[in-house]
Amino acid sequence: MMGLVRSRELWLALTVAAIALATATRAPGFAGAENLLGIFNNTAILMILALGQMTVILTRCIDLSMASNLALTGMIVALVNAAHPAIPVPLLMAMAALVGLCLGALNGALVWRLGIPAIVVTLGTLTIYRGAIFLIAGGQWVNADQMSPDFIQYTRLPFLGLPVLSWYAIVIAAGFFLLMTRTALGRSFYAVGVNPTASVYAGIDVGRTQFTAFCLSGALSGFCGYLWVSRYVIGSVEVARGYELTIVAACVIGGISIAGGVGTVAGALLGALFLGVVNSALPVINISPFWQMAISGAAIILAVILNARSDRRGGRLILRTAEPAQ
Amino acid sequence: MKDTSLTARHIPDRLDSPLRAALLSWPSLLLAVAIALFVLNALASPYFLSPWALSDATFNFTEKAIIALAMALLIISGEIDLSVASIIALASTMMGLALQFGVGTPGLVAIGLLTGAACGVFNGLLVTRLALPSIVVTIGTMSFFRGISYITLGDQAFKGYPPSFWYFGQGYVWWVISFEFALFLILAVLFYVLLHRTNFGRQIFVIGNNPVAARFSGVRVERVKFLLFCLTGLMSGVAAVLLTARLASTRPSIAVGWELEVVTMVVLGGVNILGGAGSIQGVVIAAFIMGLVTFGLGLLNVPGIVMSIFIGALLIAVIALPILVRRLRERLTR
After folding, report:
1. Pick from B1, B136, B309: which is nearest to A61 by CB?
2. Which of the following CATH numbers is that of domain B25-326: 1.10.3470, 3.30.70, 3.40.50, 1.10.750?
3. Is the N or the C terminus of chain A less surrounded, counting Cβ atoms within 10 Å?
4. Interchain contact, A120 vs B267, CB within 8 Å
5. What CA–CA distance (Å, rounded) separates A235 from A43?
6. Would you list the domain boundaries of chain A?
7. Structure confidence by residue, pLDDT tens digits, B79-113
8. Is-contact B77 B204, C-beta < 8 A?
9. Does B130 touch chain A (CB under 8 A)?
10. Is the dihedral of CA A285, A290, A292, A297 positive or negative?
C-alpha cells in the first residue's frame, strides 16, 4: 500500500487527471470520454517514441536522432507509396520499421563497437538523417494527393470505437510491459543502467544490450515515421523537427532517470500523456498556444526536481560515529 | 551515459617526445583538416580567396563560436548547457522590450548581457544547489526560456533597433575585420588563459576527471560549476547582442537549433563529452572548420541542409578515426 502511495506513476496519473478535471470546470466536455480518447489518439505517436527512448535511457545512453529517423523513414515510405501505390500498406509499415531499425542499428553499432558516447553519435546522426531526407526527396514534399487512400486510412480506421492509431500504441505499450518485466532482455536493460560493471560480472554484454536498445528505439522511430506521415498527411524535411527533445522531455516527466536504470513503461506513457493533456487544455481555456513551450519547460524542471528529491543527499559518511564538539 | 567503458587506461612507460606529441595532438590534426579544407575551397571556387568573402564567412560562426568557448569549459567540467540558444532568444526579447521603452544602445547591450547572465545563474542554481543532472535541467530551461520569448512576442517581431546598435553585428573595427570577429579573437585568448594558465582552469579539469577526488582535494566543485554556468549564460548574452544587432530584429525563433551546433563545435574541437579533457585551441580551430565547410559549400551552391550532413559526418568521423587507427595499430603490433 505504501509502495502505491509513494509511486511516481500514481502521482503523475493523478496530476494528469487533475489537469483534465480543472480544465473541465472551464470547458465542460473536456473530461468527456470522446475528448479524452481524442487526446489519447493525438498522443499515441509520442507515447510509442517515449517507450523507445526510455529503453535507450535505461541503458545510460540517449537517442537524439529519433525525430530525424522518424522523418527520414516517413519520407522513404511516402515516396515508395507515391511511386508504387499498389504495394500493400502493412508491407510499408514493416518496411518503415525495418528502415528505422537499420538507422538505429547504425547508432548502436557506433556506441557498441567504437565506444563513442551515445550523445555524440546521435547528435551526428540527427543532422545526417535530417539532411538525407533532402537528398532522397530532392527538396520536394510528398502531399496528400500523392498518397494512396489506404496509406492515409491505416491510422484512421475505427476498431472497437478507437482509431487504429491508438491501438498501435496500446499494443506496443503492452508488448513493452511484457518485455521490461517478464524477459531477461528487459531486466538486462535495467541491470546495465544500474551498474554496468556488475552487469559484466553477471554475464550481461553491456555493449550488446545498448545496441539492442538502439535497435528498438530505431525500429519504433521508423514505424512512427509511417504513422506521422499518414496522420498529418505530409512528408517533408521539416517533419518532427526539434521533436527529439520533446521525446526526452516526456521520459523525464515520466520519472525516467537520465542517469539510467530507473523508469517504467507506465511512467513513459504518463509523461507523454501529460504533455498531450497540457497541449490540448491550453486552447480550451483560452490561453494562447504560445504559452505551451514555457509550460512544458516548467513541467520538465519541476519533474526533475521532484524526482531527484529522494536521492538528493549525495556525499558519504566518513566518520562512523559523530561526537559533539566541545 | 558515464563510465560505461570497462577497459583500463593504458599508461605508457615512456612519454612521446614533446615535438611528436605536439604534432600528433588533436589541435594539430584539426589544423591539418582546416588547412586542407581551406586549400580545397580555394581550388573549388575562384571567389573564395577574396578578403571580403573570407570576412563574410566569419559571420557564419563567430556568435556560435563565442558560446562554444564557454561551453567547452562547462563540458570539460562534466556538465552541459543545452539552453544556450534559448538564452539568446530570451536575451534578444528582453532587449526588444527595453527598446519599446526607449532604452538607448548602452542600455540595450547591458540588458542583453544581464539577461544572459541571469539565465546562467538560474541554470547553475538548479544544477548545483539541487544536484540535478544538467542535461535534463537545461532541456527544461531550453523550453522555458524560449517559451517566455514566445509568450512575450507570439508571432510578432521587435524591430527598429537604433543604427548605433547595429555596429555590434555589422560594424568593422579595421578593414575587413568585423567587430564580431575581433571580439571572438579577444575572447578566445582570454578563455585560453583562463583554462590553460590559471588555477581556476586546472580546477575545471580536475572536476571533470574526478569530482569526488576534486572535492576531497579542496576544490569547491559546486562553486566552480556554478560560475561556469554563469559564464556560459553571459557568453550566450554576448551572442544575443551580436546576433540581434546583425539581424536588427528579434523573433522568438531566433537561433533555433544552435545548441546542438555549439555542442558539435566543442566536441569536434577535441573536448571529451564526458568531461576532463579538451583545449581552447581545438575549439577555435573547430569553429574555423565549421565556418569553412558551410561557407565553401555555400559558394558551391550546396544547400544548408546538405552541409549539415557533412558536419554530422565530420563529428562522428573525427572521433571514430583515432579509435580505429589505434585499434589497427594495436592489432599490427600484437
Report:
1. B1
2. 1.10.3470
3. C
4. yes
5. 19
6. 44-242
7. 999 999 999 999 999 999 999 999 999 999 999 99
8. yes
9. yes
10. negative
